Amino acid sequence: MKALIVGSNGQLGHALQAQAPQGVELVCADVDQLDITQPQAVTDWVERVRPNILFNAAAYTAVDRAEQDEVTALAINGTAVGTLAQAAHQVGAQFVHVSTDFVFDGASGTPYRPDAPTNPLSAYGRTKLVGEQLAGDEAIIVRTAWVYAPVGGNFVRTMLRLMAERPEVRVVADQIGTPTYAPALADALWRLAAANVQGIHHYTDSGAASWYDFAVAIQEEALAAGLLDQQAKIVPIATADFPTPAHRPSYSVLDKTSTFSAIGGPALHWREHLRQMIARIKTNG
């Protein structure tokens, strides 16, 4: 079994490598090795590697910057996905693509099912939706949300830095979703690939939280673990008090029922995974 991981240097790319089943041969490519917006380069890479599975963990994730640079975001999140899917199809490889909760508008009062109508509010969400459409019916498409890991830029690492530097941190309290630990997401992707369940799936940790709830939990766990030596005041604010170029869904909890069934059980609660990450950071620095 050979797997090609595109976007291998990101937090999910690292996790996919770490969670790979025993005996799988990994071939990794990041932007320095492969520009996925160049169709011939993608075709040549995939033809040369001839993987059994192609994971696309590459994405344009600068949500606010995408509002002014939708052309670039579309090239990476949309058009390139179609190129990767076609290249995978040509060599008979399974294509696994990662998408986002931002394809929804947040108007639902209940968790979004995989077949729920989409209505992205931002350029980022629109370009990721195009990627889903171009991935094709034979792909495994997994929507996720609020991904974090010990490496890379993410909310947990940012909060830990700000809490160590500042006496007060202001955090949005009226956007509700679910944090997702990258190693758990990677494990789910490998399991979905093994089950070969084509179509759209949802995966996050279990539970739900606001960004404010998440920040409070980060500080509590970090203080308990001795990772922080001072307590910052965490102030809940409204989205309107922290305007951003991109509109974000106010509620983007995903229904994972069918995914949990396919992979053999539910994910751990997001707080348990957060505790694991804090312990890992403390151990590894």
Automatic annotation (TrEMBL):
Instruction: Write down what this protein is called.
Output: dTDP-4-dehydrorhamnose reductase
Q: Does the keyword NADP apply?
A: yes
Sorted alphabetically, which CDD domains does this protein's record hold?
dTDP_HR_like_SDR_e
For this chain, the family text in UniProt reads: Belongs to the dTDP-4-dehydrorhamnose reductase family.
Catalyses which reaction(s): dTDP-beta-L-rhamnose + NADP(+) = dTDP-4-dehydro-beta-L-rhamnose + NADPH + H(+)
Question: What organism does the UniProt record list as the source?
Answer: Sphingobium scionense
**Protein purpose:** Catalyzes the reduction of dTDP-6-deoxy-L-lyxo-4-hexulose to yield dTDP-L-rhamnose.
- Kindly list the GO molecular function terms attached to this UniProt entry: dTDP-4-dehydrorhamnose reductase activity
